[in-house]
Structures are given as structure tokens and as C-alpha cells.
Amino acid sequence: MHEEIRIRINGKSLAVPRGTSVAAAMTRAGEPCRISVSGQARAPLCGMGICFDCRAVVNGQPHVRGCQVQCEAGMEILSDE
Predict the structure, then answer these.
(1) CB of 17 closer than 8 Å to CB of 4
(2) Poorest-confidence range of 7-16, 28-37, 46-55, 61-70?
(3) Domains and CATH numbers, the chain
(4) 8 burial class (0-12, 13-18, 19+ CB within 10 angstroms)?
(5) 6 near 74, Cβ under 8 Å?
(6) Closest to 3 measured CA to CA, from 17, 24, 21
(7) CB-side neighbour CA atoms (13 Å) of 35
(8) N or C: which end of the chain has fewer CB within 10 A?
(9) Residue 68 in contact with residue 49, Cβ under 8 Å?
(10) Can you tell me the distance from the alpha carbon of 61 to that of 78, in angstroms, rounded to the nearest whole number?
(11) What would the mean pLDDT of 42-51 be, rounded to a whole number?
């Protein structure tokens, strides 16, 4: 059984298994990783850090590629703009 950790995504508390990527957690929560300049919600596309559609704000740091970062307990994640 996987240990769960608690994170916050766009102000909502969410429990995810330890080792979950930020991009997967945002998808699980139904939240966009980023909002495009034209206002469209964007989600992970390539899953390996090339497309940059999984960018999010992680613990105050903008433009983090969510598919490349594992969630940590207490992490604050926001959709990037």
C-alpha cells in the first residue's frame, strides 16, 4: 500500500500517493497546469518535459515542469499563466 501525502492545488487540499508527479496530481484534481495567453486551459501533453504544457507554479516558483517534479507533503501548486 502506498503512503499518501497531502498537497494543495489551486487552494484545494488533495491526498496523492508519494511519488506522484505534479502534472499527474493536477490532472487527478481536474485542474489545468497552465492557462495559455489566449485563455485556454492546458494540461500535460508529452509527459517528459519537452512541450512545457505542464508548467505550474510550485511553492511560489513559476514555470516548473510538473511532469519532472514529484509531489512533496505540504506542497503548494498553482496553475501557471
Answers:
(1) yes
(2) 46-55
(3) 4-79 (3.10.20.740)
(4) middle
(5) yes
(6) 17
(7) 7
(8) N
(9) yes
(10) 10
(11) 84
Reported as type and span, the H/E element at residue 58 is: strand 55-58
CA 66-72-76 angle, 5° bins: 70
Residue 50: per-residue pLDDT: 86
Residues in the chain: 81
